[in-house]
Amino acid sequence: MSNRFLAMLVGTACATSMAHAxxxxxxxxxxxxxxxxxAAEGSTATTVIEVARGTYHLGGNQLVFNSAAxxxxxxxxxxxxxxxxSTIIKxxxxxxxxGDSLSGVLSLTSTAGISVRYLTLQNGLxxxxxxxxxxxxxxxxxxxxxxxxxxxxxxERSALAASIxxxxxxxxxxxxxxxxxxSSNVGGGEVDNLGTGSTYITxxxxxxxxxxxxxxxxxxxxxxxxxxxxxxxxxxxxGNTNLDFASYSNPVLVDNDYGTIGGNQSSNTGxxxxxxxxxxxxxxxxxxxxxxxxxGTLTPAGGLPTIDVEGLPRSYAGLIDxxxxxRGDEIFLNDFDH
Length: 338
Fold this sequence. Notes:
- By secondary structure, the protein is mainly beta.
- 6% of the residues lie in helices and 36% in strands.
- It has one domain.
- The chain has helices at residues 3-8, 30-40, 333-336; strands spanning 11-12, 22-27, 46-52, 54-57, 63-66, 75-81, 87-88, 95-98, 106-110, 114-117, 120-122, 125-128, 132-136, 141-144, 147-149, 152-156, 160-164, 170-173, 176-178, 181-182, 189-193, 199-202, 205-207, 210-211, 222-226, 230-233, 236-238, 245-247, 252-254, 257-258, 261-263, 267-269.
- The two termini are 18 Å apart.
């Protein structure tokens, strides 16, 4: 049986085994999701919020978690569950949080670590940080296997804004950040590490993000800043306004494809400057003729993601593609995939 097909089978959630260490909440609507976030504020336990599949229309009310508590516990938000959260499908396209072009989507501020996985955050509207706005002053940040699309900032940072201080690490892995707009700066995302931990940015596709007004700095794609050296591997930065990728933190770049780049680099190996050959204007899978197939590193700093943005195996036959999607075993594509 194909590895790609096996990866699409539904896995069983393991909330029971986590009961001793965490508070686990299953949510199926917007009110329940905000209630779970509010209840987690100030809790000393790890809070795991399991979000059922479906579309969550916010109707002008941004989802917010804000804790300055010294003993705050970890917060984990994970989409892809069925209605009773007994099983999970690891595909962010199935769990959509929609700002309805009326508000920002998700704002998270904590003194402890936060993870966000398997969600689509779309149609956010805010002056800054319209999609995901996440700030952590203790613990780490994990933003893995999400889709950020069609968010708009009337100022800057439309899709993703992540900032960390302290000693925690930051992982931004396997995300699709596309078709977001900002009026002045950072059409896609900004990642700031102001602490002593490491930053790992691996196998993301950041494409077609635009700045609609007068350029402030011109970071249409991803801007990375911080006091430590970021590690940037296997990403596609393409078709963004002005600069596809920029950093002034001397990043180490390995096997990335970009159209334009700014700032400085400690080192840059395996860089490509070629059209990725996406499948369509709104379809960011790679065509079978793409020059990016099989050219990623299997040993990126911080570790290789285990799956792609659709929940399929991240590598196939000892090779890995650049970007958020892995073509993998093509035998079953007509029956089981896009």
